[in-house]
Automatic annotation (TrEMBL), chain A:
UniProt-recorded name of the protein: YciI family protein
Similarity comment text for this entry: Belongs to the YciI family.
Residues in YCII-related domain copies: 1-97
Alphabetized InterPro entries for the sequence: Dimeric_a/b-barrel, YCII
UniProtKB/TrEMBL annotation, chain B:
SUPFAM superfamilies per the UniProt record, alphabetical: Sigma2 domain of RNA polymerase sigma factors (SSF88946), Sigma3 and sigma4 domains of RNA polymerase sigma factors (SSF88659), TPR-like (SSF48452)
A Pfam cross-reference name: DUF6596
Domain RNA polymerase sigma-70 region: 18-78
Name recorded for this polypeptide: Sigma factor-like helix-turn-helix DNA-binding protein
Presence of the UniProt keyword Transcription regulation in the record: yes
Basic and acidic residues biased stretches: 75-86
Region (Disordered): 75-96
Record-annotated RNA polymerase sigma factor 70 region 4 type domain positions: 109-160
InterPro entries according to UniProt: DUF6596, RNA_pol_sigma70_r2, RNA_pol_sigma70_r4_t2, RNA_pol_sigma_r2, RNA_pol_sigma_r3/r4-like, TPR-like_helical_dom_sf, WH-like_DNA-bd_sf
Positions of the DUF6596 domain: 178-278
Family affiliation: Belongs to the sigma-70 factor family. ECF subfamily.
Keyword annotations of the record: Sigma factor, Transcription, Transcription regulation
Cited Gene3D superfamilies: 1.10.1740.10, Tetratricopeptide repeat domain, Winged helix-like DNA-binding domain superfamily/Winged helix DNA-binding domain
């Protein structure tokens, strides 16, 4: 079972060196224990571009899709047998990156 | 009610959780388990009056529900492998030995009370899946609209399935926290029954207190070594024992000091005291008691006195001191102050209560306690005002009636 762990960030600023170091340790553990699928940190939301090509031509808009108090700062995709382990890993991930996180299953 | 109807009601109470739990394990789907169990009981209602009650009603229901579940899966003609597997592997499974099925009920309880579900969802799901209450019954009990409650249960089941909330008894290190989560759900059910809110409801919903006690007994049977489970059961029994004395014929709350102690249920008190004594023995042997055990002990002190004047308030206070160390919440401090009033007088108690004003000004019991202390100090005008605030905030009809009479007695 795969889960998306989204890192929510409610104030500007990227991860500090200490947070980076803690995230590295956590990532190594995910890999060692077989829960790792993929992960990544994102650049600031102002660097985003929104594209909408549902109509005749692609509309390209500068900036994030939503102005929001909380934005996605990064994510993990993990493999876990059930929600209990996913929540445990998420708790450790939250501690490591020093951010609030959301756990959501893939379909 | 005919004999068969009575049997069906009893079997429903005793077997519902077992049937749902067994099917959930077999099919890995709460929704299928719930629907098949409901259909099996409907079939029993249809057939038993004519065919007679089968020799082993529980096994009959499980077998029937199992067939209903397989029928549904076939009907829906699901092509995915999981369901094919369920059909082929489980269709002719022999009945499980009793021990394994009991474990299933425990699994079911932990799944329904999973911390990833909102508290309202845990309550609703536990009462439906473990308690066997219908959606209309639960909706009435919590004063929510039926469709909203139905949706809450459906959403919870969908989350359990999609996010794969495990169907299992938590392991060692996680167990105490998860058990306390289950107990919190049961205590909320009990309290909603004990101090039912809402203008149109009975002041005490015996159906809810009885259901909470029944489910706590079930958990106690499944986890006999857990001190807090025993503590919560004792606490509920000792409160339930006073139920009939607690509301007057005219529907007014009767405070502890005015209750007819002869009307207390001596059997429930004896059972509660027995449990408290066991926990005291464990505490003496070095097992630190949790909050439910301490609350039960406080209630044991109250129910041991044949008259309010014989209450051993120093013991009550010592227990509250112990509780405050465990849970420094303002509500505990408020209840502690009531014992302080008996030992050190209302003035000392009032000073302690007044310190809680910032946190508890929206809580009716804070104002009711203040009102009573002010009354005892002869400060009638202030007492009247405090009763007024308590009445505004109280949601329970019997309590409102009691507070109104008390207020009107103040000059």
């Amino acid at each position: 079972m795969r889960y998306l762990i989204s890192v929510l960030h409610d104030e500007p600023g990227l991860a500090t060196p200490e947070e980076h170091a803690a995230i590295d340790v956590f990532n190594e553990r995910l890999q060692a224990e077989g829960n790792w699928v993929f992960a990544g940190g994102l650049a600031a939301p102002e660097t985003a571009t929104v594209v909408d090509n549902r109509s005749e031509r692609a509309l390209v808009t500068d900036g994030p899709f939503l102005e929001s108090k909380e934005y996605l700062a990064g994510f993990w995709i993990i493999e876990a047998p059930d929600l209990d382990l996913a929540l445990k890993l998420a708790a450790d991930g939250s501690k490591a990156c020093n951010r609030k996180i959301e756990v959501r299953p893939f379909r | 009610m005919s004999d068969v109807e009575e049997v069906i009601t009893r079997v429903h109470r005793e077997e519902w959780a077992r049937v749902v739990a067994t099917l959930t394990r077999r099919f890995g789907d709460l929704d299928i388990a719930e629907e098949a169990a409901a259909e099996a009981f409907a079939t029993a209602v249809e057939r038993w009056p004519g065919d007679g009650v089968p020799p082993n009603p529980g096994a009959w229901l499980t077998t029937t529900a199992n067939r209903k579940a397989i029928d549904r899966i076939r009907r829906e003609n699901k092509r995915d492998d999981k369901h094919k597997e369920a059909q082929t592997v489980y269709a002719d499974d022999p009945p499980e030995p009793v021990g394994a099925i009991d474990d299933d009920r425990l699994r079911l309880i932990f799944t329904c009370c999973h911390p990833a579900l909102a508290m309202e969802s845990r309550l609703a799901l536990t009462l439906r899946m473990v308690g066997g209450l219908t959606v209309p019954e639960i909706a009435r009990a919590f004063l929510v609209a039926e469709p909203a409650l139905g949706q809450r249960i459906t959403r919870a089941k969908a989350k359990i399935k999609a996010a794969r909330v495990p169907y299992r008894v938590p392991s060692g290190e996680d167990l105490p926290a998860r058990v306390s989560g289950v107990l919190a759900v049961l205590y909320l059910v009990f309290n909603e029954g004990y101090l039912a809110t809402g203008a149109g409801t009975d002041p005490v919903r015996h159906d809810l207190t009885a259901e909470a006690i029944r489910l706590t007994r079930l958990i106690r049977a499944l986890l006999p070594e857990d001190g807090e489970v025993a503590g919560l059961l004792a606490l509920m029994l000792l409160i339930e024992a006073r139920r009939t004395a607690r509301v007057s014929a005219s529907g007014e709350l009767v405070a502890l000091d005015e209750q007819d102690r002869g009307a207390w249920d001596t059997a429930l008190i004896a059972e509660g005291h027995q449990l408290v004594r066991q926990r005291l023995a464990a505490a003496a042997a070095g097992v630190a008691p949790g909050r439910y055990q301490i609350l039960a002990a406080i209630n044991a002190v109250h129910t041991s006195a044949s008259d309010i004047r014989e209450t051993e308030w120093s013991q009550v206070l010592a227990l509250y001191d112990q509780l405050v160390r465990l849970d420094p919440s303002p509500i505990i401090a408020l209840n502690r102050a009531i014992a302080v009033a008996e030992l050190d007088g209302p003035e000392v108690a009032l000073a302690a209560v007044d310190r809680l004003g910032d946190e508890l000004s929206g809580y009716h019991a804070y104002h009711a306690t203040r009102a009573d202390l002010l009354r005892r100090l002869g400060r009638s005008q202030e007492s009247r005002a405090a009763y007024g605030k308590a009445i505004e905030l109280a949601g329970n009809t019997a309590e409102t009636a009691y507070l109104t009479r008390r207020r009107d007695q103040q000059g």
